[in-house]
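HOLO CASE FILE
Compound: zinc ion
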Amino acid sequence: LSGVEMKKFRRAFDVFRKTVILYDFEEIKTPIFEETALFERSLGGGTDVVSKQMYTFEDKSGRSLTLRPEGTAGLVRAAISGNLLRELPARFWYCGPMFRYEKPQKDRRRQFYQLGAEIFGEAGCAADAEVIEICNDFFNRLGIEYSLKINSIGCPECRGRYEDALKKYLADVLDELCGDCRERYIKNPLRVLDCKIDRGKDVIKKAPNFESFLCEKCGGDFEGVKNILKERGISFEIDSRLVRGLDYYTGCVFEFYTSAARDAIAAGGRYDGLVKFLGGADVAAAGVAIGLDRISSSIKIDESREGYLITGVGVSGGELERLARLIREAGFLCRVSSKQKLKKALAEASSGNFKYAVIVGEDELKNDSVSVKDLGSGEQKTFAKEEFIKKL
Ligand SMILES: [Zn+2]
Ligand SMILES: [Zn+2]
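Model generated. C-alpha cells follow.
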C-alpha cells in the first residue's frame, strides 16, 4: 500500500476507529498466525477457506501453523486464553492483515486488510443489529452507498432440520451440481448454497427456504433484528441463500455490497457457539468484518493539503530551515525545496499538492519579509516575516 491507496486506507481506518469508539469498543491486536487446528475447527473443514485458501506451514519444532485467513477465530482464542471475557458484555475492534491463497485480481489480494468489531455476552437481537448499524454509520461517513442482505441460519436445532430438508432436496438434483458439491452435500450441505460455481443456478434458487425452518426463538430473534433495522431506517433485503462461507455462524447473518465491488464489502453475523466450542464459557457473540481493499475504490479523499513549500534561490539553506521550523512549530506541514529555479520549485509545490509556496528571494531577505503564493488562486502577497509567522 502506498500513495493514494495508502491515504484511502488511513482514512477508512480513522473513520472506523472513530465510529467504534462512539459505540464503546476497545482495540485489540492478535497474532497474525495461529495453530492450524484453530481454523480447521472453527471455520469448518468443508469450507473453501480451510480446504483451499490457507497459508499453512510448519515451524522449527514441527507444529502446523497458519497465517490467519480471518480475524474472529484468533480473537476468540486470544480472548479465552487472556481471560478477556470475565466481565461481560465485552466489545473489541481490530484492524490487520489477513491471508488467503486465491488467484490475485482486482480488489482481491493474497494479503488483504480487514476492519472488524465483535460483541461478546449479548444474546438476542440487539447486538446483531448494532454491528449492522456500525457498518451503516461507517459507510455513511465515508460516503459509500451500499446494499444490505440478511438471513438467519438458526441454532443447531433448526439448522439440523433445515439440513435434512436440503439434503433430501439436493439428492434429486445432484447431477446439476459441481463435483465438490456432490461431496459437500453429504457432510456439510449448507456449503452448497454458497458454492462459487453453483450459486447462481436455478436448482439452488429453488432450494428450500431457511426462514420456514427456524424454531420459535430463532424466528423471534430474526424478526427482532428486522424490526430494529426498520426502526433505525436501515434498508435491507432478505436473501434466503445467504449462509456465509464459515461454519461458526448461528442465527442472523448479513452481507454488505456496493456496485463497485463484485464480492461483499463487509459481512458478519451471530456466532453463539464458538467461544464454548474453543474451550471458553457459554458466551453469546456477534461481529462483522469489513474488507478494506474492497471499499478502497469507493473512498474519496481530499488530496489538497494545508502545507507550505519553501523556496529561496540563492538564499542559504540554514535561513530556509529556520523559517521551516517556525512553520512546523505552528503545526503546519512544511518542506524546503532544493530546486535551484523558482519555476521548478513551484512545479514541485503543485505536484505535491501544497496549498502555499513561501518564496524568499534577495528582496525578501533584504527586507526580512516573505512572499506567499496561494497555489489554488495564484494570488501572491508579501508580508513582514514576523507578521507571517503570527498569522499562521
Ligand atoms: Zn433455532
Ligand atoms: Zn458446487
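CASE NOTES: DSSP finds 16 helices and 16 strands in the chain. The mean pLDDT is 94.
CLOSED: yes
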